[in-house]
Q: What sequence folds into this?
């Protein structure tokens, strides 16, 4: 019987979009059955257009910067856009997959993507904001799968 | 070494070589061999782990000047 992986994706920044999609697509390649439950800011990762995900150096002291930068500089207008641009450039230079590609890989390999219905209501999202092929559910839906999974991770 | 299909995963980073390999294996028949080229140093351990967990057989692994070449025999069913 196939092993099962259950993930909760709770973050919607460019950097934190990677772990759930990398783990899910890889587990699917290893013949795992995989389900990801997207809640709160993680729900952003199911939107049709995810080309505008951002990464912020602010409150992120471990983020490598070309020159050391105090917090008050990092909060200046434009810093977040610059950090995001630099990160995207690095991602491309190093042959790291884009989030779009990894999400497509997940969908193609049968990873089940569940959008948290409560978060959809909370943030006034519309079902039409999201990609096709996802399901909507709540905590009980997550546990139906997670309860019989071999690996459960909160990201 | 003989192979039935070649896959170029050079300059791709984790997890792309594994994802491409999985796709490549789906395009050949059981017991046929897939040759994969990769430059990601992490791919050595990853391909070993991939084969161990999926039952495909890693027939051979060559390394030369940062280029890794894997020969993977597709499992039966």
A:
């Amino acid at each position: 019987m196939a092993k099962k992986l259950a993930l909760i994706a709770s973050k919607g920044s460019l950097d934190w979009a990677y772990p759930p999609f990398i783990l899910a697509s890889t587990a699917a390649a290893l013949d795992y059955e995989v389900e990801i439950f997207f809640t709160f800011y993680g729900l952003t990762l199911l939107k049709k257009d995810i080309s505008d995900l951002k990464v912020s150096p602010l409150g992120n002291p471990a983020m490598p910067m070309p020159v050391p930068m105090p917090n008050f500089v990092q909060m200046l207008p434009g810093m977040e856009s610059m950090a995001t641009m630099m990160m995207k450039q690095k991602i491309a230079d190093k042959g790291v997959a884009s989030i779009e590609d990894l999400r497509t890989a997940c969908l193609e390999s049968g990873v089940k993507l569940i959008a948290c219905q409560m978060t959809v209501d909370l943030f006034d999202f519309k079902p039409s904001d999201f990609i096709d092929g996802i399901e909507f559910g709540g905590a009980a839906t997550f546990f139906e799968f997670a309860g019989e999974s071999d690996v459960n991770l909160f990201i | 070494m003989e192979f039935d299909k070649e896959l170029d995963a050079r300059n791709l980073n984790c997890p792309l070589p594994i994802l491409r390999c999985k796709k490549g294996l789906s395009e050949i028949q059981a017991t046929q061999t897939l040759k994969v080229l990769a430059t990601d140093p992490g791919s050595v351990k990853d391909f070993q782990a991939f084969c161990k967990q999926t039952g495909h057989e890693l027939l051979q692994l060559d390394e030369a000047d940062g280029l890794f070449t894997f020969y993977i025999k597709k499992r039966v069913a």
Observations:
- The mean pLDDT of chain A is 94.
- Residues 79-93 of chain A form the longest helix (15 residues).
- Chain A is about 35% helix and 15% strand.
